[in-house]
Amino acid sequence: MKKILILHTGGTISMAEDAQGHVSPNESNPMSAVNMQLDEVELVTEDIFNLPSPHITLSDMLVLKNRLKKAFLTESFDGAVITHGTDTLEETAFFLDTTLERGKPIVMTGAMRSSNELGTDGIYNFLSAIRVAADEHSHDRGVLVVMNDEIHSARYVTKTHTTNVSTFQTPTHGPLGLLTKNKIIYFHNDSENQHLDVHSVHGNVPIVKAFAGMSGQILDLLDLDKLDGIVIEALGAGNLPPIASQSLQRLLDAGVPVVLVSRCFNGIAEPVYAYQGGGSQLYDAGVMFADEVNSQKARLKLIIGLNAGLETPSQLRNFMEN
Ligand SMILES: NC(=O)C[C@H](N)C(=O)O
Question: CATH: 3.40.50.40, 3.40.140.20, 3.40.30.10, 3.40.50.1110. Which one for 207-320?
């Protein structure tokens, strides 16, 4: 018999629609009332939060991480399922994936349609997540995201559609696997995300998106005394308009960690172009190129690195670029 910890955190999966079509949280989570009778699986359920996922903070992620650590170290759980709002699900998944060691399966899921809507996907996704968490082949894969019959890696998955039930996709790599009616099939193994545990999540790290004709105005407005780092969503392979790149130099000169990702949905940013504002110039000036993560995940990674005590530029660069 597998013992699986269920942590409900809120999100649309826990919400209901009213007569006007407005969706909001319930006093008590409808998912807790779902009577999931499964052979060979014992479920232990906790309503750890009841929050829409735009209300989830890094402190909440830390609470979840500590709860999961306890579950596996001292409570002999065989796996865990976390239900979560989809808006920031990928961020919580990435945070847990980076701060917890790989081992027993941790599976996150949610829904795009609330509990009383026609075609609600909540209970189906919940059951799928439990199946994956109880499967022997789900061990040592890091945090998994299960929605709409697909299994995705926390490192790469992202929300791609505002309302569609197939919103979670893995650009460049594709999903790790899928669920059929009777089977769970993994197509490939994922490389391990660098693991670093943290006990705090302090830090002001904004994300700034680049655009054609970008001036330095937004970067010039940033108060260096209140800035612990910055993530730039750059153009293409990792380039910036020339004036913006000049303003970035002020941050680099002040020792602010600057991390770059691409605003492209697919592919990997690399220091290639040598013109003014080009990636290779930015790299030589000290900009770190975060490997294969989007801006919201690069931001979490930088905050984790800083809170884990990586101080020197080379320590941080090694963490951010691998
Ligand atoms: N589908 C969802 O769960 C979206 C909702 N706004 C949330 O993230 O809480």
Answer: 3.40.50.40
What is the mean pLDDT of the segment spanning 45-54? 96
Span of 32-36, 76-80, 156-160, 238-242 with lowest mean pLDDT: 32-36
CATH code for the part of the protein at 2-186: 3.40.50.1170
- ipTM over 0.95 threshold: yes
Tell me if 117 CB under 6 Å of ligand 1.
no
Cα(271)–Cα(258) distance, integer angstroms: 14
Beta-bridged to residue 4, according to DSSP, are: 43, 79
Tell me if residue 12 is catalytic: yes
Q: Is residue 172 annotated as part of the catalytic site, yes or no?
A: no
pLDDT of residue 190: 81
Indicate the domain borders of the chain. Answer: 2-186, 207-320
Task: Spell out the residues 6+ positions from residue 295 whose beta carbon is closer than 8 angstroms to its own.
Answer: 207, 209, 231, 232, 233, 261, 263
Given a cut of 80, whether residue 36 has pLDDT beyond it is no
Select which of 9, 83, 86, 92 is catalytic: 86
Of residues 27 and 25, the one with the higher pLDDT is 25
